[in-house]
Amino acid sequence: MSAGATPARAARWGHPHVLDMDSFSLPDIEQVMETADAMKEVLGRPIKRVPTFRGKTVATLFYEPSTRTRASFEMAAKNLSADVVSMAAATSSAAKGESLVDTMRTLEAMGVDVIVMRHPQSGAPYLAARHTRCGIINGGDGWHAHPTQALLDLYSIRERLGRLAGLRAVIVGDILHSRVARSNLYGMAASGVEVTVCGPPTLLPPAFATAFPGVRLETDLDIALDGADVVMALRLQRERQEAGLLPSMEEYIARYQINLRRLSLAHPGALVMHPGPVNQGVELSPEVSYGAASLIKSQVANGVAVRMALLYLILGGEG
Fold first, then answer.
1. What does the pLDDT look like over 65-123, one tens digit per residue?
2. Which of 74, 118, 143, 217 is the most exposed place for a label (fewest CB within 10 A)?
3. For residue range 248-261, what is the model confidence (pLDDT) as tens digits?
4. How many Å apart are CA 194 and CA 229, to the nearest integer?
5. What is the pLDDT of residue 246?
6. Cα(264)–Cα(170) distance, rounded to whole angstroms?
């Protein structure tokens, strides 16, 4: 990388893996942000590629479908000139019964340096990290964690508002099943963001108040939105209604959709976020989803820069 785009030296980086946000301190988060700033400078060039990791190999191993996370990691690795091996469990030896541990050992033997994985079982990346010398990046595991989404969310907020500490955020929707919510709660707490989680009582676990001290639980969205600087809506799975956790989709929309009236209850200039994909007309009204307050496109774009930063730090880039 050129001198004009040299981030903080990775020698200070103490994480061989990125498994969740609970192990990230505020200095860790700030280092990711600083490095992502340099990566955005690279992405603004006519040729969006640097030779930093020529000869390194990044594998994406996804046991669940993904568009944004997988594509942005593959773009991030290629922008750093790493080779990319893309694997889907349905077409790999996992479909023939190969265990996760055996897959890790196979990829390590092939010379892979970093494995980005998504798995339906909570904790799978932790198991993988114990059985390989490759760096493991959690691209989402069950209901548990999605740390790179949380980091790109924090980066997007900081980019637009200029700070994180002292802001008030509301996360609304299916809190119970959301790995995005859990990782964001850790990251926001470390960054000094005051958080309220809001949703139907059946999707708002009381244990969150104990697991995340300082987080406020609220079932009335109008109350939750009062004075909020950031409003993050979570994707609602229709299976929740089929499982009896919601009376109807219509009632959810009536009580928890972010629309213009509800957004007016937040702080003037409040941002609207969503990890995607959006169920249009469910979590967000079209006017909000595509309005000036929406950070959704920025979240997608910033995902590449933040994931470039994490690869850079894990692979030991020296600037």
1. 898 999 999 999 999 999 999 987 665 555 555 799 999 999 999 999 999 999 999 99
2. 143
3. 899 999 999 999 99
4. 10
5. 86
6. 14
Beta strand 57-62 pairing with 114-119: parallel
Q: Find tokens 């390194």 and name the residue.
A: 56
| The token pair that represents 112 in the structure block | 């892979």
153 and 239 in a single domain? The answer is yes
Residues of the chain with pLDDT under 50: 2-5, 8-11, 318-319
Q: What is the DSSP letter of 294?
A: B
Domain of 191, CATH number, reads 3.40.50.1370
Give the count of beta carbons closer than 10 Å to the beta carbon of residue 208: 18
| 158 and 119 in a common domain | no
For residues 89 and 116, the answer to whether their CB atoms sit within 8 Å is no
Residue 319 maps to a domain: no
Structure tokens, 147: 């740390």
Strand partners for 141: 119, 145
Q: How many domains does the chain have?
A: 2
199: containing domain: 147-299
Instruction: Give me 142's structure tokens.
Output: 């069950």
